[in-house]
Write a structure and sequence with these properties.
By secondary structure, this protein is α/β, with parallel strands linked by helices. It folds into two domains: 87 residues, Rossmann fold (3-Layer(aba) Sandwich); 123 residues, Rossmann fold. Strands 1-11-8-7-5-6 form a six-stranded parallel sheet, sandwiched between helices. The longest helix is centred in the first third of the chain and has 21 residues. 42% of the residues are buried. The structure holds NADP nicotinamide-adenine-dinucleotide phosphate. NADP nicotinamide-adenine-dinucleotide phosphate binds next to loops.
């Protein structure tokens, strides 16, 4: 029977670190980290994430401002706002909630964010540096995944790591992070043949598909570390990609949904803005 990796518990450790960092800066009369989060329109998921960011920033003493723009805002207005925030010395991190309304070109807008304030790693500069192994902001979800794997105490080096999913926000960056840790990485996707066979050889299995219950016990190697990134709402409940009970029996460590990866991401975002100052 595997052990459950508690995302909330891991997040708490980082939150304590952030809170004491902020306290120290206040005591030394230094600038308190400040995040500005921009949302365009009224996407429900983005609003939930925005409220979550505000709640956690308030709790940790980090300054937070949300700017909610009308769904019909012009691209030029969003760009002007980002330029203003780039120049504002009191702002350390700019978070642009995605998705944007259809009439806005995401690339045009995200590319304006100053590299030094791009805490969610949306710009070409940060992404390029990240994949070249240079110092850069690491996107929050992949970072959460790596921290959760490390929290098990296993040595990632030399492990056979299988990532299912190749999106720019999860699959590709987490594969790169695993490679940085010297795992042997295989990236699978919708055209992969023999997925079950490949997964059943994984020492570390990361599933980022978005198909609830897609990964059954047969996909899991005995003693594997299993990370479920998938989050799909089914009958009002959040479901992961992995059949939890089946995988729990075979794995050494497994993340639940909810309470696993998702419980870490906002904390990692705030950690990113603090690290830029320490
Ligand atoms: P995405 O862009 O839709 O990517 C899904 C990936 O799954 C694609 O690469 C796709 O392959 C692959 N895939 C689909 N069907 C497959 C199959 N039958 N076999 C193998 N691979 C298959 O999604 P995403 O943005 O990466 O997100 C993935 C999941 O993670 C979603 O449930 C999302 O809600 C969740 N998520 C959670 C967090 C969190 O904090 N917990 C953060 C971000 C995302 P192709 O490339 O070939 O289409």
């Amino acid at each position: 029977m595997g052990q459950i990796i508690d995302g909330k518990l891991q997040a708490k450790k980082y939150r304590e670190k952030i809170a004491s960092f902020v306290k120290e800066r206040i005591n030394n009369g230094l600038q308190i980290p400040c995040i500005v989060s921009i949302m365009v329109g009224n996407d429900g998921g983005s609003m939930y994430y925005l409220e979550n960011q505000k709640r956690l920033c308030d709790k940790l003493g980090v300054k937070f401002q949300s700017i909610i723009l009308n769904e019909n805002s012009a691209e030029s207005d969003i760009i002007s706002l980002i330029i203003k925030l780039n120049e504002d010395k009191n702002v350390n991190g700019i978070m642009l909630q995605l998705p944007l309304p259809r009439h806005i070109n995401e690339k045009n807008v995200t590319s304006i964010i100053s590299e030094s304030k791009d805490i969610d790693s949306l710009t070409y500069e940060n992404t390029g540096k990240f994949y070249r192994g240079e110092k850069a902001f690491v996107p929050c979800t992949p970072r959460s995944i790596i921290e959760l794997i490390k929290s098990t105490g296993i040595d990632i080096a030399g492990k056979n790591a299988i990532v299912i999913g190749r999106s720019n926000i999860v699959g590709k960056p987490v594969s790169q992070l695993l490679l940085n840790e010297n795992a042997t990485v295989t990236i699978c996707h919708s055209k992969t043949k023999n997925l079950k066979e490949i997964c059943s050889k994984a020492d570390i299995l990361v599933s980022a598909v978005g198909n609830p219950g897609f990964i059954t016990g047969e996909y899991i190697k005995e003693g594997a570390v299993v990370i479920d990134v998938g989050t799909t709402v089914v009958d009002g409940k959040l479901k992961g990609d992995i059949c939890f009970d089946e995988a729990l029996n075979k794995s050494a460590f497994i993340t639940p949904v909810p309470g696993g990866v998702g419980a870490m991401t906002t904390t990692m975002l705030i950690l990113n803005v603090c690290e830029a100052l320490w």
